[in-house]
Amino acid sequence: MTMLRYSAFAGAAAALPLSLAMGAPLWVAAAAAALTVVGIADVLQTKRALRRNYPILAHFRFMFEAIRPEIRQYLLEDDQSAAPFSRNQRSIVYQRAKLDTDKRPFGTQLDVYQAGYEWINHSIQPAPVNGHDFRIEIGNHPDCPRAQPYSASVFNVSAMSFGALSANAILALNGGARTGGFMHDTGEGSISPYHRENGGDLVWEIGSGYFGCRNEDGSFSEKNFAANACTAQVKMIELKLSQGAKPGHGGVLPGPKVSLEIAATRGVMAGVDCISPANHSAFSTPLEMLAFIDKLRNLSGGKPTGFKLAIGHPWEFFGIVKAMLASGITPDFIVVDGSEGGTGAAPVEFTDHVGTPLQEALLLVHNTLVGAGLRERIKIGASGKIITAFDIARTLALGADWCNSARGFMFALGCIQSQSCHTDRCPTGVATQDKLRQRALVVPDKTSRVAHFHQNTMKTLAELIAAAGLTHPSQLKPHHIVRRISPNQVKLASALLPYLEPGQLLDPTLLSKLPPVFGLYWPVAQAESFHPLQ
Question: How far does Cα 499 stand from its chain's mean position?
């Protein structure tokens, strides 16, 4: 066994004098010398035991480990294996973005008798397909005399910041949003020049760092906020409480990555660590949070204003809803971010085991608003691995009014799921600040692909709901979705999932009859604090 471990090293060391003695070509001697030097270095170094025990040979192991994801993706990956997105999911985005055919012959590849399989019931009398530009109105708040409602598509670009994405990626996303008539969420990194250049509709996300609307000490600045919020391109204001991929976790953009451009966009100092705190400093209670949202709405001139969150402790969201009832202040919208959402970088434990998946989070938000009698005043957006028209239809049927997608639109830009976003070495120029790598992303071409992906997905959604006998996605309800429970049992989502009736939470005598989450946590939630009553 020892001979095997040192065979490559011994072979290289022996080949060097032999090649010189036998008059072999110079490159043979050079190669033997180089390998001998590598072997000596391996044996003498002290950081890697594998190199000491397997000089030269260990490097083959490191090489194959480095390209393992590529080997799996290109040679071994199953079409249906979602890690995190399957080849079929990625392919449908590429096809629709490139205007290639997205049709498939010979029947479904899915096991329709496997638990978890879902479908939408169709009608014997399908509705006519009369267009695909499905829109909903957000805003027109009764408490805001200067309300500026926004007509939004039911499918939009989710929050991704400049800094996480490249300048060219932002340009293409926003250009596609303008061409296709949908909205583009800025992410918490504020509004960069690349968000503005093409003039697409923006949702300005305000995070705990208050980038673009902060004072020098990191606190919220009304003056700086109003200057950005009142520009015509900004259509909605979104206060970010948390995100699905790493809820309850702040962020740091290291100083070396804070370029002059990013510093100017965010309103921070170049070369200094850019901190996104885990908590907001502008409020500390549900009542204060709603007052802050109302302030943002007024400072923006009445633009639709709401918040985004990943659901964690149920009593915290219940406290926000109780604060709505107590203060009379309601947001225009709430975006629910499922724990399956993505991010450029997060601790594995947060990605895998923190936060509520989209289905349960969406149900909690929808049911709470219905039970409190507030659902008609507040629209709900949803995000978390939404790619296809069926994903959209299913999410709207469960309780959302519109959907956002981040990684779907990244695929439209050319992302190949290399999962190197955190390394600044994105192979397609989507998630990098490397100027040379960004050049690979040709903005006019990718702009068209973003618009095509949206348009073709909406066309398929139109056909899907027409097959169900409907004329608008807002007509989708839980009873339209069917889920297989076992090989011989299926249930409608309306029977499988709990749904509250309007006002049920306002009657204390009904709490014991509601799902346990409401019976346990609604009574202890309070508008005056995010903490439960003891």
Answer: 26
pLDDT tens-digit profile of 506-519? 999 888 889 999 99
H helix and E strand count, the chain: 21, 15
Contact yes or no for 112/482 (Cβ under 8 A) = no
The three-state secondary structure class of 157 is strand
C-alpha span between 358 and 340 (Å, rounded): 7
Report d(CA 148, CA 153) in Å as an integer: 16
DSSP category for residue 162: B
What is the rounded distance in angstroms from the CA atom of residue 355 to the CA atom of residue 341? Answer: 10
Q: What is the mean pLDDT of the chain?
A: 89
How far is the C-alpha of 253 from the C-alpha of 40, rounded, in Å?
40
Distance CA 166, CA 482 (A): 40
Distance between CA 339 and CA 361 in Å, rounded?
9
Please state the separation of Cα 483 from the chain's center in Å. Answer: 25
Question: What is the number of residues in the chain?
Answer: 534
Residue 2: its H or E element: helix 2-5
CA distance 222 to 214: 8
pLDDT value, residue 136: 96
State the Cα–Cα distance between residues 386 and 150, nearest whole angstrom.
Answer: 22
**Separation between Cα atoms, residue 432 and residue 421, nearest integer Å:** 7
Neighbouring residues of 98: CB distance < 8 A, sequence distance ≥ 6: 449, 452
pLDDT of residue 354: 79
pLDDT band at 245 (very low <50, low <70, confident <90, very high): low
Please say if the pLDDT value at position 373 is more than 80.
yes
Q: Are 405 and 157 in contact (CB under 8 A)?
A: yes
Closest Cα to residue 461, out of 374, 391, 530? 391
Mutual angle of helices 314-327 and 286-299, in 10-degree steps: 60
With b for 16 or more beta-carbon neighbours within 10 A and e for fewer, the 96-126 pattern comes to bbbeeebeeeeeeeeeeeeeeeeebeeeeee
Tokens 């076992």, residue? 486
Tell me the C-alpha distance between 430 and 419, whole Å.
11
**Which residues neighbour 195 within 8 Å (Cβ) at sequence distance 6 or greater?**
162, 170, 174, 184, 186, 202, 233
Omega of the bond leading into 84 within 30 degrees of 0 (cis): yes
Contact 308, 240 (CB under 8 A): yes
SS3 275: strand
